[in-house]
Every structure is written in C-alpha cells, then in structure tokens.
Amino acid sequence: MLNLNELHPETLAVRAGTMRSEFGEHSDALYLTSSFVVGSAEEAALKFTGQMPGYIYSRFTNPTVAAFEQRLAALECAERAVATASGMSAILALCMAHLKSGDHIVASSGLFGATIQLFNTYLGKFGVTVSYAAQTDLSAWEAAAQTNTKLFFLETPNNPLTEIADIAAIAEIAHRHGALLAVDNCFCSPALQQPLKWGADLVVHSATKFIDGQGRVLGGAVVGSHALIEPIYLFLRTAGPTLSAFNAWVLLKGLETLGLRMKAHCENALKLAQWLETQPQVSRVYYPGLVSHPQYALAQRQQTGAGGVLSFELKGGKAAAWALIDAVQLMSRTANLGDTRTTITHPATTSHGRLTPEARAAAGISDGMVRISVGLEHIDDLIKDLVSGF
Ligand SMILES: *Cc1c(COP(=O)(O)O)cnc(C)c1O
C-alpha cells in the first residue's frame, strides 16, 4: 500500500486533491455552478448546519475550489488551505479572522505596498496598530513586540531587494510574545519554501504570481492548521471574497507544473544575476542565489531555490534605468511578476512611486534600480535583450 503521507511533492502536485465525478474524468472537472441541489429538506438542513458534508453554495463550498485547496495544502505540508479571490483578500481574511480592535501587528518594513496600505489605512480605521521592523534585524523584531501584539507578518524574499527574513528565528520571537507568525510565500511558492516547517503558523499566497505562473487569473490562499484556518474560512463564508471555480481550475493546473517551472525560473535567474554582476553598467545585483547576497547562507538553508526575481542597480541612475526599460524588445514592461514571460520594471517610479524620496531611500530603493521577474525564455535571448538595451 502507498503511504499517502510519504508521497513526494512532484506526485502531490499532480495527484493531491483529485476528485472524480460519476463520469470518471481524468483531468480535474470545472464545476461552474453557484449552488447545489439537495435531495430532501432534511438533507438541506443537515448540510447547512455542517452535520453532513457536501456542497451548498459556491461562496463557501465548491468542488473545484476544494480540489485546489487540498492540493495546495498538500504542497505546503499543511492540514488545510482556504482559497481566496486574490492575494490581498487572503491577507484581509487572515486579519479579519485573527485580529480585533486594540491588537497590534509587527510587520517587515519591505512588505508589498498594498499590504502596507491595508494594515495602515484600513485596519487602522478599526483600531489595529502596526509597527515595522527591518527584515533582517532580529533585534528590531524583538523590540517592536508589545503586550497587545497578536500577529507577526513577513514576506521573504521581499520585493525588490530580495532580502531574506529568518523564519525560524522570527517564529520563536513571535511565539515567545504569544503572537502568530504569518508568512507571505508569494515569491517562493511551496515549491521552494515551506514556512510552516520553519515554525510559521500561517502562510498566505498570491496565487496570481508563480502558482498560476502564466499571468491568467487572480487568486490567493491562506494555509495552516485546521484550528487557525477555520475562523478564516468562516469570515470568507460570511463576507465572500472567495475564489471563483474557474480561477481555481486554472490554478489547479498551475500547481501541476509549479515545481518544474520554479526550477527553470531559478536556473534562468541565477544565470542572469551572475551575468549582470560582470556588467560595467551595473553597480550591484540583488539575488539570493548569488554568493555576494548578504543572506546567501540563510537562503540556502531556508529555501530549496533562490527564486525567479532579481534586482540590480545601474550606475547611470534613473535615466539609465528608464532607457534600459524602454529599449528592451523581448521583456515585457509590466509590474506583474511570476510569469512564464520575463517582466521588467522600475520600482522607484512604479511600485514604490508613492513613497517620499526619503522613505524610498530608507527602504533601499534607489533611482537606478531595475527589477526583473525572470521568465522561461532561453537565457541567451534574455541576455541578448539586455545587451542591446545597454
Ligand atoms: C502580488 C502580491 C500580493 C497581492 O496579490 P494579489 O493576488 O495581486 O492580490 C501580495 N503579496 C505579494 C508579495 C505580492 O507580490
């Protein structure tokens, strides 16, 4: 007998969560239906009260969404996952379920911009406060904790500096202060990093990025123990920012090739980063797979690959960065990342454009910085594109 708990990630990626209808379809079926019919009044009553398992209404129960949740949970080695309409709704649902007025969050300073906006502007309206700690400074995380701290939240590697947070060390700090640790695992995906293994309590995903990996749909998820996911599920059931069945079906197919794609993204990104380090126009390259990266050793320990995103600084400042971005012919000028197609952006005037120049400098985002999400094109063609751009 196969022991399902001993299956490898490659197997789980294509097999976990598979369910078959009476038709015996081999691929995962797409259940595009808002509601489900019951056989009797009694069955409806039992299903609504949770005494009988089954599907009721797609705001909170849909077989295609359930299959995606089970497959993702298997890949994160988690008890349970709950899918959401986007990465941001995953973070919102987590906060709505686990925080209340008067609570405090300790978060890493280099978070995704919309996450900072959500914490400061919207959670702030309801009396939740936030302190930010530098990603790599453990004493700053310790110092930021308060008696009312309920959640530590980080993203590693972060964007665009690819700084690595020490998940195990920060989990220890969070737990000592009686708080949960949630990790945004968007840059690595479960194929390269499993935060729960390092002591995180919850993992959030923007499935829009590498999990879809082909730039087609938005989606998100929160992953963790039954006990921590259940209140998040109940918030989604009530408020409704759930994943659509169609998007779940696309993302299920994305998970099947995630491991292979991440391996190829990592190989291409490492070659591109190493090449960039030898270019005279480039003053610095940020990529966790480079020996020159300040947290190289930590990245090697915590991740099974360095990821598909890198940044670099051009000596010519903003003018040189804009000229390069305007000159590339293959790479896509778009802010999205985690796509089969390579994308190139200028963080200082896009993702971090609304910060003051001082705040941007404090965050380490220089005017000459360019971020590339390295896709699956041939590496020689990507290098050629940058050579002609330079
Ligand atoms: C894109 C992104 C998000 C938000 O995800 P959406 O699916 O766009 O809502 C959150 N965190 C990180 C690190 C991201 O890159």
From TrEMBL:
GO terms for biological process: 'de novo' L-methionine biosynthetic process; homocysteine biosynthetic process; transsulfuration. Keywords: Amino-acid biosynthesis, Methionine biosynthesis, Pyridoxal phosphate, Transferase. It catalyses: O-succinyl-L-homoserine + hydrogen sulfide = L-homocysteine + succinate. Pathway: Amino-acid biosynthesis; L-methionine biosynthesis via de novo pathway; L-homocysteine from O-succinyl-L-homoserine: step 1/1. It comes from the Bacteria. Its cofactor is pyridoxal 5'-phosphate. One of its GO terms (molecular function) is transferase activity, transferring alkyl or aryl (other than methyl) groups. The modification N6-(pyridoxal phosphate)lysine is found at K209. SUPFAM superfamilies: PLP-dependent transferases. Transmembrane segments: none annotated. Gene3D superfamilies: Aspartate Aminotransferase, domain 1, Type I PLP-dependent aspartate aminotransferase-like (Major domain). One of its GO terms (cellular component) is cytoplasm. InterPro entries: Cys/Met-Metab_PyrdxlP-dep_enz, Cys_met_metab_PP, O-succ-hSer_sulfhydrylase, PyrdxlP-dep_Trfase, PyrdxlP-dep_Trfase_major, PyrdxlP-dep_Trfase_small. CDD domains: CGS_like (cd00614). Its EC number is 2.5.1.-. Pfam families: Cys_Met_Meta_PP. Homotetramer. Catalyzes the formation of L-homocysteine from O-succinyl-L-homoserine (OSHS) and hydrogen sulfide. Belongs to the trans-sulfuration enzymes family. MetZ subfamily. This is O-succinylhomoserine sulfhydrylase. It comes from Deefgea piscis. The gene is metZ.
